[in-house]
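# step 3/5: fold
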Amino acid sequence: MNIRESGEMYLETVYILSQKSSTVRGVDIGAHMGFSKPSVSRAIGILKKDGLVVTDPQGYIRLTEAGEKRAKLIYERHTLLSRLLMNLGVDEETATEDACRIEHYISEKTFEAIKNHVREHSQS
């Protein structure tokens, strides 16, 4: 399944918010991302159709197993790339913004190479 960058951003946001609270609502996602309720509703509908999130009768949003797996990968990419850029001397705000862009386009092969490089150099 190949979701767009915006879908990945929503998945990552649901993951981040679910780490802070046992309940995630569309309004929480909108506030976190700065998006309107209709935009959030549309995106969540697409993610539901793709089997990445479910909603309960109260409207709470939860990642499916597949959605959580995908969201964790996106979040791992974001945090590792942010840390790498900051270690190279990039300020935190720029590093975070750039990592957000890179995380959606970098190949699995390149990311694994970066992850191995960071792991090797953090042990020294």
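# step 4/5: annotate
The chain is about 70% helix and 5% strand.
# step 5/5: archive (pending)
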